[in-house]
Each structure stands twice: as C-alpha cells, then as structure tokens.
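Z., the sequence and structure:
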Amino acid sequence: MLQHEQPFNPGRTLSPGGSQRAIDQVQNLILESADFEGFLNELARFSAHQVAGSGEDALCGITLLRDRKAATIGWSSDSAREVDEIQYSLSQGPCLSAAKEEREIYVPDLFDEDRWGSDYANAVAAHGLRSVLSVPFHLQGEAQAALNLYSDVPHKFDGDVAARARGFTREISQALRLAVRFALHTDSAINLRATLKSRTIIDMAVGIVMAQNRCSQEEAVRILTSASSNGNVKLRDIAASLVQSVSGGSARTHFDDPGEMTG
C-alpha cells in the first residue's frame, strides 16, 4: 500500500464523495490555505483522494510548464515529487506529454511500457509503482499543466477511475488557472521560483555526471536516481551536493532574485 507522508484530511468543509461539487471544495482550499504552495499541496492530496476512491490510495503530483521549464508545483507526498522529477531529468514522460500536447496519457503497466525508453519505466517502477495516469488541465494560455497519478497496482486507472480523473481535472481547471495567475502576480510566486530553481539544480547535476562519466543523459539520470535511492536521500539534495562540490559554493540560477545575488 502506498504511504502518503502528509495524508489528506477532508475536515468539515471538504468531503470527497459527498454532494458538494469538487470546484466548491477547491475554492475552500484556496480560502483556507496560507499561501500558494500550501494550496497546491493540499490540492494534490485532495486530488489523489478524490480520484482513487474511498479506502484506496494513489500518489499525485501537479506539473506546470512555463517559460520552457517544467516543475511539480503541488505534490501529495515527497515520493510523488521525486517520481515526477525523473521525467523532468529525462525531458520526457507521460506528465510532460500530457501537459504539452493537452491530451490524456495512460500507462496501464510500467512493466510493459516503452514509449519513453526503458530508463523512464525502470526508474519509476523502482519506486514500487506500476501504473500512471496524466490528465491535462486547460489553463487557457496561463501556462500548461497536468495532474499526475501513480499507483502500485497495474491497470489501476482503467474505466471508472480514469473517468473520475478526467471529469475532476476538467471541473477544477478554472480554479487552478486563477490560482496560477494570482500567484504569478503576488509574493507567493517566490514559492514557484524556488521550485523551478530546484529543477535547474538537478539539470546541472545531470550535466556534471554526463561530463564526468562521458555518458548519455539517460545514464546520468539513472546514476543520480540510483544514488538517491541507495542513500535514501532526496534527488534534489543529491544534485545540490554534487553541484556544490564541483563549483566550490552554492549554485546560482537565473531564477534567483537580483537582491539575493548581492552581498
């Protein structure tokens, strides 16, 4: 059974499976969350709970594509974020295809999957996962995004579950679009930039491994994810440590604010 590190608690106003529409419940999340990042993480946990069904479980991440960068901006657990980041490191995978092409992508069983090469399927399966469903949000020009669902059960997202995910993302797309627009024009956008900075650090680490080992991008990702799994250390922490060891200091990215780069 999958383990959520921060389980979703429906509370009094949120009741997946009840009579209240999903959009009303998401609006409550917006009102009750302290900041943009908190809202997105609650939305990911709520989405996993809503789509998987009562008494069942799934991992959930929300991918945002903006300015040619991909990042998981909401996650139901650290495991969900780590699995999403495998795709970003390889620059391919179901959530990226779903967001870019605005179409649903389903992987019934990772053991039989080869659309993005064996490295992707093997890396995600190594986390104990078997099936993946990515459903695009329709943000109408604000950005591109997808809801990513993972299960340790093959064919988990067949039939009714896929239909629920499809209807759910369609129903809450407008709420997410407004939240993204608001966040990009307020101080809460700092949370989004920090996520994108983390993504850039991982990309830098992949480049370092490629240069040091004279290997392909796929092999470099495999080396980093293997080190992360074997050492039980988060992928972004492994990446930051490697970049720091090579540069002799903390890396700066183009997501840093000018004020942060002085002094």
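Residues 3-19, 257-263 have pLDDT under 50 and may be disordered. The longest strand covers residues 59-66.

Let me know what you think.
H.
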